[in-house]
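Severity: low
Component: inverse-folding endpoint
Summary: output formatting inconsistent between runs
Steps to reproduce: submit the following structure tokens with default settings.
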């Protein structure tokens, strides 16, 4: 039961952190709740389907199907987060001044909301499929589904509560600063996801991680609760390799560079009358 609680809590916390950041960064947009709810529902359904056919997935591609699938999920989420950040750089200020009005500019929020729903769905899909597989394994080896379900339910509730606390904490940030703060959180989140995707690609034999740069596990273990939170929020890795660092810094550079380019191009556009 305790094992199920810890495992489910850690997995749910990752999805809850993504959802809370998404909700906070899109506060005031009409329909954001529906899109995020749709993303959560789609992720739950997808997780159930993936878990049902997990054996088939893991047996494909020379036994590395699950690793390739997880890497694709992470990289697609990185792309969607990057799109959201770039979009917010050009529309965030406009949204602040028009939060209480309904107009054409707010209607353009349909595209980023769609992207965010996909990000939420992918997060729930990945974490949810892992939860189902972990619980199934625990139930098969640890005395039945009863303790696994009970512990998993407690872990689910605890993860949701922690995610809600983070969300409420983010909402205390002044509206004028919410976009810049959450944009940087999303950039770091995307960089961490990109670095984590390298682990799956390396396991499948597509890339080589290279030598380990340092080992900070004696200071903060990646398997601890705090380590897991930092791993999700900023991509903390206790034993980063050369490839991890290159991908992490490269992702931050690409997103911030693209954001500045798009923002500068928007500022140079003549105002049509």
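Observed output (run 2 of 3):
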């Amino acid at each position: 039961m305790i094992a199920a609680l810890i495992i489910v809590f850690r997995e749910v916390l990752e999805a809850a952190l993504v959802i809370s950041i998404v909700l906070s960064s899109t506060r005031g947009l009409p329909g954001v709740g529906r899109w995020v709810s749709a993303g959560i529902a789609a992720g739950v359904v997808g997780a159930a389907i993936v878990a049902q056919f997990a054996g088939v997935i893991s047996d494909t591609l020379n036994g590395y199907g699950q690793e390739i699938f997880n890497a694709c999920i992470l990289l697609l989420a990185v792309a969607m987060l990057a799109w959201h950040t770039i979009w917010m750089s050009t529309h965030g200020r406009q949204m602040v001044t028009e939060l209480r009005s309904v107009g054409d500019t707010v209607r353009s929020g349909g595209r980023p909301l769609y992207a965010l729903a996909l990000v939420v769905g992918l997060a729930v899909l990945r974490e949810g499929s892992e939860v189902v597989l972990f619980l199934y394994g625990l139930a098969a080896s640890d005395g039945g589904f009863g303790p696994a379900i009970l512990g998993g339910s407690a872990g689910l509730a605890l993860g949701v509560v922690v995610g809600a606390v983070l969300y409420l904490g983010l909402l205390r940030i002044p509206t004028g600063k919410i976009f810049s703060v959450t944009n940087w959180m999303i950039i770091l989140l995307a960089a961490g996801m990109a670095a984590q995707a390298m682990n799956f690609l390396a396991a499948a034999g597509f890339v080589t991680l290279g030598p380990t740069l340092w080992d900070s596990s004696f200071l903060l273990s990646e398997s601890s609760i705090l380590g897991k939170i930092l791993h999700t929020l900023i991509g903390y890795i206790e034993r980063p390799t050369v490839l991890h660092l290159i991908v992490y810094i490269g992702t931050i550079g690409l997103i911030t560079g693209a954001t500045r380019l798009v923002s500068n191009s928007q500022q140079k556009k003549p105002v049509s009358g």
